[in-house]
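User: Design a sequence. Structure:
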């Protein structure tokens, strides 16, 4: 029994040393994208191996909610390989903790809603800070993902960083006390399908007065274009400035339709079935050669750490409307539908 325990502690130490080195490299200032991909691929493979050796199964069943879908553990695990998304959320959370730690010696309380099977976004914190610096409350609605996080943290010897790891619906969760940082990355492009807005609409009330939401802001802009003219980013190519510039030349920018930040969440308390009118936009000046209205998503993770169009699966273009001749030049009302299939919707104004 003593030998088994020693072997277990030795394995834990090996992983801890390796992960601390990897995260230090990954969050280094000015790291190149090719190195980000190499390091995250290595980390992803390590966590897959841990999950396999520890008997952690990842199911393929989504959970249908009244305000969106909680994606299944298998799909959530694949988000690791959305490399810029993973890196920028990790970096944003890390920088936010560094900034707050520079301003206070108090332990920071962090709420992480929607951990997936690996608790990916907060992993660097477990290796670059001490337990006296941070106390994490983690919630997850999928029991398989929750069980995976619990077992992985036990395997890595990181349980003492957590106040709790709890099965809960983040859209209705009511914790004790307030938090310095609240994190949730539960979104898809154009705020469709997943309950990001409903989660922050609920949790913002538990943010401390000088606290931070991560991401800080989700912007969705409305543009006119033609799918025939649109260039798509090649698979697994990231930070493609050239493609953005090509598409910019033929597109017509109409207006920002939503800026989901702390003020938005405080002003709109979302409940199931709520439809929020956002604004009315005009299509009067749009060229007849442009047949579609596109939603383009940008995510401000923290300060200047952003995800722009095509940096991630969650910032891909989303077709919001295809014109028919009778609709051209008319005004459109923009709504956010908060139901089982949340999304932005355009409606021709009568």
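Assistant: Done.
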């Amino acid at each position: 029994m003593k030998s088994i325990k020693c072997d277990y502690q030795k394995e834990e130490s090996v992983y801890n040393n390796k992960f601390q080195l990897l995260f230090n490299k990954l969050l280094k200032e000015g790291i190149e994208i090719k190195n980000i991909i190499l390091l995250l691929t290595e980390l992803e493979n390590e966590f897959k191996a841990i999950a396999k050796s520890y008997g952690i199964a990842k199911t393929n069943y989504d959970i249908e909610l009244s305000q969106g879908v909680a994606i299944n553990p298998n799909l959530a695990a694949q988000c690791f390989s959305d490399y810029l998304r993973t890196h920028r959320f990790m970096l944003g959370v890390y920088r936010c903790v560094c900034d707050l730690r520079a301003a206070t010696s108090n332990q920071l309380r962090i709420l992480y809603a929607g951990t997936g099977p690996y608790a990916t976004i907060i992993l660097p914190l477990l290796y670059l800070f001490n337990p006296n610096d941070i106390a994490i409350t983690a919630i997850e609605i999928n029991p398989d993902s929750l069980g995976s996080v619990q077992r992985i943290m036990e395997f890595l010897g990181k349980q003492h960083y957590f106040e709790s790891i709890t099965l809960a619906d983040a859209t209705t969760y009511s914790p004790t006390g307030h938090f310095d940082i609240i994190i949730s990355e539960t979104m898809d492009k154009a705020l469709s399908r997943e309950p990001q807005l409903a989660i922050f609409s609920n949790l913002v009330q538990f943010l401390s007065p000088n606290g931070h939401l991560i991401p800080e802001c989700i912007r969705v802009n409305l543009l006119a274009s033609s799918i025939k003219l649109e260039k798509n980013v090649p698979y697994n190519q990231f930070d493609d400035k050239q493609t953005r510039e090509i598409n910019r030349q033929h597109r017509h920018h109409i207006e920002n339709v939503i800026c989901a930040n702390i003020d938005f969440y405080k002003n709109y308390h979302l409940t199931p079935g709520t439809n929020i009118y956002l604004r009315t936009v005009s299509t009067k000046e749009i060229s007849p050669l442009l047949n579609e209205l596109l939603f383009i998503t940008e995510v401000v993770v923290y300060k200047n750490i952003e995800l722009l169009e095509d940096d991630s699966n969650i910032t891909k273009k989303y077709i919001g409307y295809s014109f028919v001749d009778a609709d051209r030049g008319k005004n459109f009302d923009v709504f956010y539908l908060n139901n089982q299939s949340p999304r932005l919707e355009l409606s021709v104004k009568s």
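The domain at 2-215 is CATH 3.40.50.150 (Rossmann fold). The two ends are 76 Å apart (CA to CA).
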